[in-house]
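quick one, two chains, predict together pls
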Amino acid sequence: MELLFALMIGVLFSLGLYMMLRRSIVKLIIGISLIGNAGNLLVFFAGNMVRGKPPILKDNLVSDIYSLSDPLTQSLILTAIVISFGVTSFGAVLINKAYDVLNTDDVDTLTETDSSC
Amino acid sequence: MLITPLICIPLLGAAVTLIFYKEKNIQQWISSITIAVHLFYAFAIFNMVQVQNILVEYLGGWAAPVGITLVVDKLSALMVIMTSIVMLAVNIYSRLATDAKLESQGYFPVVLALLAGLSGTFVTGDLFNLYVWFEVILMSSFVLLSVKGSREQLEGGIKYVALNLFSSVIFLCAAGLIYGLFGTLNLADLSVKVAENIEDPRVHTFALMLWIAFAIKAAIFPFYSWLPSSYHTPPIAVGAIFAGLLTKVGIYSMIRVFLFVFNPLPDWIYTLLIVISLITMVSGVLGAYVQTDFRRILAFSSVSQVGFMMLGISLRTDWALAATILFIFHHAFVKSGLFITAGICEYAYGTFDIRKLGGVLEKDVFISIIFFMLGLCLVGVPFSSGFLVKILLIKAAIETSSWVSTGVIIMVSFMTLLYTVKIWTEVFWNALPDEEELKAEKIKEREMSSMMYIPAAILLLAGIIIGLNSNYFAEYGREAAKNIYYKSDYINSVLDTSKYKKDYNFLEAK
């Protein structure tokens, strides 16, 4: 299970990076959202993730607290998912507007604001 | 209920300005009042910190390390005041000079949200909360950067958005992995637990991941390419905020997380950081010298000045850190002030290109004097604010026998003088090159109101005050630095052991 998750996160990261390095700005946004999701999964997995043990305490009996899954990472990625959703939608609007104005979706041609030296 | 107003006041102001979305005048007044109240409150907090040293607030009544903790120590108090003063000056400037299109598209609410995000970053004592405030800052700055939607703004916007989102992901991963390793996100608690496991190579990896995330935000050497290609694109009222405050967030977080929590790391890491900061200083200053656009020179100059701050962090003595803290403080005022003078020159004479400007000294003595004094502060002439911070940094470099960095500091200071003089001669001293040619390019001059001097003068005054009270500020900076290096005060105030036990009672097995 751990190996599966680690592999999946790794694949998502590499896919996202590959997409970010492509020349199209649409692929740039896809890459950013893929990497964002990989990051969320990594955080999710960094907590104590165990099967079938929800973090619900019965009668304050918590002698086996370390065998329960960790609720905090789940709430962390809940925040992170909302943030990355908002940011990605902003990015989508931005590239849409940029395509309208610049008439290109090739990142390599966006050199107007680079320094000339 | 002590620290939260620093965040709530600007958020409330942003909400109220959104109600009056169509009324530009009301928005202006509300935002000015909000920032003034924020400044007043920041001064009140500053005074309280003088007495109590460290203020702590547990959000929702959950004691540390369970809930989110807000902490104000001397460093945070200084940063919050800095933010507020720069924001106030830029607010006055934007009333006079920004165009209607920017203001009708929500400039004022977004700036207030940015102020809330900056205050939140400076007062939080929780790693994940720091990430959230970073995102608040990022979203506001994305909007401010691209809202006018011109060609170059969208281009600069894409570069800025892509790199900063990437750094956010690195930050998030590092925070998650650190939580997985130590089971806590509270910075005070984390620094206790990290100190017990400082030999663990995983800790070094996570620390460097965080460093890379902050270095992208602060525009340190291998990661700075987004800054010169985006900071000159937005209107001056936005550019002054960006140049004055946003890169400082990265440096502040480095101090707070990298020095406070992950200290001491192996020596080779700090040696590497010294090398990186020296390269940042030199490459920024060389970039600044070859540029011909007023704002681009200032943007590259920001890169080199950030190198100075980074150097103070990597030298690791309390005087070096005091130099960094005061450098952040002084540079925020000086750089925003220079951006505003650039904006005034553009407003009055129609261009940012220093080859097409000239003779401003004859036409407008006030702005020339203001630029001259700000330039002296930036370069670090004796009795100016820049002198204080550079002399502290040189002192620290000599004390650690780091001769190369001593030499580079002095050399880069001279080269700072070079590009400042370049602007001075081209824009203010020399006569206008060729009037006929300029008319052909339709550069038109505008009448400006004399009120526009006020924001630049406020920022200049702040720089002069730092320079003239250098004893007080040096001592203050040193105490702030000691709070970072000798962690016990901070940790004891945050982790109140009696409360710790009380709230954990329900976890003890029966």
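The helical segments of chain A are 2-21, 25-46, 71-102.
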